[in-house]
Design a protein that fits this description.
It contains 4 helices and 3 strands. It is α+β, with helices and mostly antiparallel strands. The chain has a domain at 31-112: DnaA, N-terminal domain (GMP Synthetase, Chain A, domain 3, 2-Layer Sandwich). Strands 1-2-3 form a 3-stranded mixed β-sheet. Strand 1 (62-68) and strand 2 form a beta hairpin. The chain is elongated and about 85 Å long. The model has no long low-confidence stretch (mean pLDDT 85).
């Protein structure tokens, strides 16, 4: 008769075994590349819709900042422009963007920030 403790050890041994270490970074690079291509497609689709629907005055003082999940963040350079953009989003711009944008979109956030890309120093 076999000891139940030995039977249990034999049963869990495959799960407790160390996996072979793979020092290559090929899988990491490949997954990062796939994610970058997917995000670029999604971001460019939104960018086209954004440029088509947003008035030139707001377009000049804002930029697409980031995407996180289904939320897109827009950076605006002044409080009045942020207020105007928020008002436009509430009065139908967000719905129109969702209609034209092919990706998932639950929220458009606006935040105040410098849109100037030059180095001030």
């Amino acid at each position: 008769m076999q000891d139940p403790r030995l039977a249990r050890l034999a049963r869990i041994a495959p799960y407790r075994r160390r996996r072979d270490f793979n020092p290559s970074i090929g899988e990491i690079i490949e997954s990062t590349k796939k994610k970058a291509v997917r995000d670029e497609k999604r971001f460019s689709s939104f960018s086209q819709a954004w440029e088509q629907l947003v008035p030139a005055e707001i377009l000049a003082c804002s930029r697409l900042s980031s995407t996180r999940g289904t939320t897109i963040t827009i950076e605006v350079d002044s409080s009045p422009a942020k207020y105007e953009l928020d008002r436009l989003l509430r009065t139908g711009l967000e719905a129109n963007l969702r209609r034209l944008y092919s990706g998932p979109l639950t929220r458009i956030k606006t935040k105040l920030g410098a849109t100037d890309q030059s180095d001030p120093g």
